[in-house]
Specification:
With 380 residues, the protein is α+β, with helices and mostly antiparallel strands. 37% of the residues lie in helices and 25% in strands. The chain has two domains: 193 residues, Aminopeptidase; 167 residues, 3-Layer(aba) Sandwich (Aminopeptidase). The chain starts with a strand and ends in a 13-residue tail after the last helix.
Length: 380
């Protein structure tokens, strides 16, 4: 008779020796990346690494994150500076969140399985792991308000009801912006040739505006030297966001580079000798994931710095012949002007209070910031 079980870890060093054999399908579940979460996660986040077993043999791996939203300014500076009923209700009844997945990324980075376990059986184990963690937190007088699993596109969405996730509500937020590299693009000239006149003009204008700005790939030593400036620039962008669930610690990018080496790229943008912006990329098989960035607001407006960062990311991916650039959520319109397409992502969510859970779908829509944007199509 087949027996299934799970073990929960909090340290990357303690993971089973064969963990990375399964994780090779996704760098964001590999031991090196999980070490980043262990050593340099946001202050309000705790990470748990779940090993799934079939007859005592490792068959799957998953990431679970706990977030305490009472410790972060969630709704943006303007709303946080005044009394907000929405903010009050959210913090009062939804501060403690536990979910399978990665709140720092967009896309299915929740789990990877091998062929010895079905997705349904794996999800049943993950549901049991969530219940175990809820009890563990309760013993520490931390009462979980919301549990969930994220992010899946429509073709990936599992049958959560079948897997034992009773009473969970399906939800969606801002789409994942994905840039597909056309097979015929061998260099940036090929990309530019595919653009229509309007967006080729946009490209040329943005490049001209950025004259005087230089870009450099930063080594580990450079990242350490610029650590505080990188944090300042990151917080400038994070502070302008309408919704935040965490803030990265100052050492995050240094630890990222230490653990992932050449798979983590950080580019600094300089005005003379002054660092005025940065972008980050992560190699993940045939895909490139964009990560966090930062910039000086004044320079961004004058030099169209953000748009130039997007073009630089696209150019690198074309040059290196990657298949996809995962631009993630936010700034959907400008990302679509470069060529990214919106992919709706889904998850499931449940409030631990059964009465509140009845209204969870409406509450989620109330708390989720609405973004109106127009999709652009830059190609001929």
């Amino acid at each position: 008779m087949t027996q299934y079980s799970f073990t929960i870890f909090t340290s990357a060093d303690a993971l089973p020796a064969e963990w990375d054999t399964i994780a090779q399908a996704n760098i964001f579940l590999g031991r090196a990346y999980l070490a980043v979460l262990e050593k340099a996660a946001p202050a309000n986040m705790q990470c748990h690494f779940i090993a799934l077993y079939t007859n005592s043999k490792l068959c799957g791996i998953a990431l679970c994150q706990y977030l305490n939203l009472s410790k972060v300014a969630t709704f943006g500076q303007a709303e946080e500076e005044k009394f907000s009923l929405r903010r009050y209700i959210f913090k009062k009844f939804s501060s403690h969140i536990l979910f399978i997945g990665n709140n720092m990324l967009t896309g299915q980075n929740a789990y990877v399985l091998n062929d010895s376990i079905s997705e349904s059986n794996a999800l049943k184990l993950m549901h049991a792991a969530l219940q175990s963690l809820i009890k563990s937190y309760r013993k520490k007088c931390v009462y979980i308000n919301v549990t969930g699993v994220k992010d899946f596109d429509e073709t990936e969405m599992p049958n959560f009801e079948e897997a034992g996730f009773k009473g969970f509500h399906k939800f969606t937020t801002q789409p994942n912006m994905i840039f597909h590299i056309w097979p015929e693009w061998k260099n940036m000239d090929d990309y530019l040739a595919a653009l229509n006149t309007k967006y080729r003009t946009q490209y040329n204008r943005s490049r001209k505006k950025a004259e005087g700005i230089t870009k450099r790939k930063l080594t580990l030593n450079c990242i350490i030297d610029y650590e505080q400036r990188l944090q300042e620039l990151y917080l400038t962008v994070a502070g302008n966001a309408s919704f935040n669930t965490f803030h990265l610690p100052a050492n995050h990018f240094r630890v990222f580079k230490e653990e992932l080496g050449d798979d983590f790229l950080l580019y600094g943008y300089f005005d003379g000798d002054k660092l005025v912006g940065f972008s980050t990329l992560i190699k993940n098989g045939d895909d490139f994931d964009t990560y966090f960035l930062g910039y000086d607001d004044a320079i961004q407006r004058d030099k169209m710095l953000y748009l130039n960062m997007l073009y630089d990311m696209a150019a690198y991916s074309v040059k290196k012949q990657y298949k996809l650039v995962i631009f993630g959520r936010s700034a959907m319109e400008i990302k679509s002007s470069v060529g990214a397409k919106a992919v709706t992502v889904y998850g499931v969510i449940k409030h631990t209070n059964p009465v509140i859970n009845i209204f969870m779908s409406k509450l989620f829509a109330y708390f989720d910031p609405k973004v109106n944007w127009k999709e652009r199509n830059p190609f001929k």
